[in-house]
Inverse folding.
């Protein structure tokens, strides 16, 4: 059994004793702590909180616990039921609510669930807010209301249509262009809420021919739900067999978007953002942001269009903060996360699909030919395990000093930018591990760079 408490929420496996897994007691305690913080954040006792959930088997149980606890804290609840993460974020904004809770463990397997927490803007909490909630939960500094002050619940199933219409109404989503291109689109929604949301979205976008794989929202994930190439072999084969033009794969809460080419090859999660940014920037020049571990191709495409690229620390809240600071037109993360400010400040696969299909339709190219127009980079992901007594911060500092002649960014670990490649080192907050991401023009070069840094670390640590 596992329970992980962090500034972004609480997640764990279902079952076990309180404090060991995500038990009902832990759900109640953390929800009450969140409601206490939300009241303090907006400065009022009577608050409204939006709740949405993915299709996990444990979803109905966790939903009932969360909603009842919010009522007990005097909060009114707008319950969306089965809902994507971006839909819940939009609902907080459109309802002028005081916060939101999304019940999803994102790409984790079916035995996991989690509470993702939103502020009154429908955005993920910053570190300060997250720490405060952890503190309230730990000390159990919350008070339930008297019987006359209990919150009320409104069930609202209108947001699927509202979100779909919102995507269609975006200025740079061209429904006519998509419709006229007569594309055949394949979907893998891993038997979660993507199966509820994406077919109606494609229909509204003018896609007449769809091939649906695992679109039954029953929480029985047919494969590892993280949309990585090794988990997408079935849809890749289906695309070739059925001669689809493009395939879309989402994670259980539909904030990450992976794309599969018409020949069954991977467009590459890193390149979801690159392609959408290329389309946005060709129509609306401006700046972009991604995190330090994302591909350099975004910077190349941004500069080609005359814009400026900036890197943020890893984590959606950090990317959003940097996007606001630099007034970007498009940003996100290299895990297929599109953040489009014209819509809202959150990763949104529905928005990503609308923009990408417009781009593909207007390009007149096949999906693989479109992918070939972007700079080719390869990322190698590695880690080195150290012993608990080793000072990881000291090692990172010594690596930074060794490469001080290169361009260094230390806002989140240490990133070393060489002329034709880069490497990013980040320490784990929970175990003595340094994660090492490297990128170069070939996978061999990326692997070699990672090995060089691993050797440096071993030498510094005396291993």
């Amino acid at each position: 059994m596992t329970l992980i408490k962090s500034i972004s929420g609480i997640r764990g496996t279902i079952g076990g004793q309180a404090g060991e897994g995500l038990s009902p007691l832990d759900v109640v305690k953390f929800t009450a702590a969140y409601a206490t913080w939300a009241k303090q954040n907006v400065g009022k006792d009577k608050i409204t909180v939006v709740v949405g959930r993915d299709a996990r088997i444990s979803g109905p149980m966790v939903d009932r616990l969360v909603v009842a606890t919010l009522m007990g804290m005097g909060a009114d609840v707008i319950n969306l039921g089965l809902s994507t993460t971006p839909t819940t974020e939009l609902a907080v904004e459109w309802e002028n609510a005081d916060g939101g809770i999304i019940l999803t463990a994102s790409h984790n397997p079916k035995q996991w669930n989690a509470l993702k927490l939103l502020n009154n803007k429908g955005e993920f909490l910053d570190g300060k807010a997250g720490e405060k909630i952890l503190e309230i939960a730990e000390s159990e500094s919350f008070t339930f209301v008297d019987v006359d002050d209990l919150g009320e619940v409104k069930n609202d199933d209108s947001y699927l249509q509202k979100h779909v219409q919102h995507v269609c109404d975006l200025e740079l989503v061209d429904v006519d262009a998509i419709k006229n291109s007569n594309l055949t689109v394949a979907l893998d929604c891993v038997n979660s809420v993507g199966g509820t949301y994406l077919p109606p979205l494609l229909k509204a976008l003018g896609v007449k021919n769809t091939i649906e794989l695992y679109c039954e929202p029953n929480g029985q994930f047919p494969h590892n739900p993280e949309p990585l190439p090794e988990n997408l072999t079935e849809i890749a084969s289906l695309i070739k067999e059925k001669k689809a033009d493009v395939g879309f794969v989402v994670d259980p809460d539909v904030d990450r978007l992976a794309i599969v080419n018409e020949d069954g090859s991977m467009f590459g999660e890193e390149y979801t953002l690159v392609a959408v940014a290329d389309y946005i920037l060709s129509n609306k020049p401006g700046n972009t942001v991604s995190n330090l571990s994302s591909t350099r191709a975004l910077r190349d495409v941004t500069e080609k269009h005359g814009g400026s690229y900036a890197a943020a620390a890893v984590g959606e809240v950090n990317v959003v903060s940097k996007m606001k600071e630099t007034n970007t037109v498009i940003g996100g993360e290299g895990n297929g996360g599109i953040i489009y400010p014209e819509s809202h400040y959150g990763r949104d696969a529905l928005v990503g699909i609308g923009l990408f299909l417009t781009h593909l339709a207007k390009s007149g190219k096949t999906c693989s030919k479109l992918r070939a127009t972007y700079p080719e980079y390869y990322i190698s992901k590695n880690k080195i395990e150290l012993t608990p007594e080793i000072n990881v911060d000291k090692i990172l500092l010594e690596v930074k000093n060794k490469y001080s002649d290169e361009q260094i960014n230390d806002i989140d670990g240490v990133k070393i930018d060489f002329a034709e490649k880069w490497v990013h080192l980040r320490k784990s907050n929970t175990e003595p591990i340094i994660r090492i991401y490297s990128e170069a023009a070939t996978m061999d070069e990326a692997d070699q760079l990672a090995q060089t840094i691993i050797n440096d670390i071993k030498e510094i640590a005396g291993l």
Remarks:
- The two ends are 32 Å apart (CA to CA).
- The mean pLDDT is 95.
- The first helix runs from residue 24 to 42.
- The CA atoms of residues 288 and 309 lie 5 Å apart.
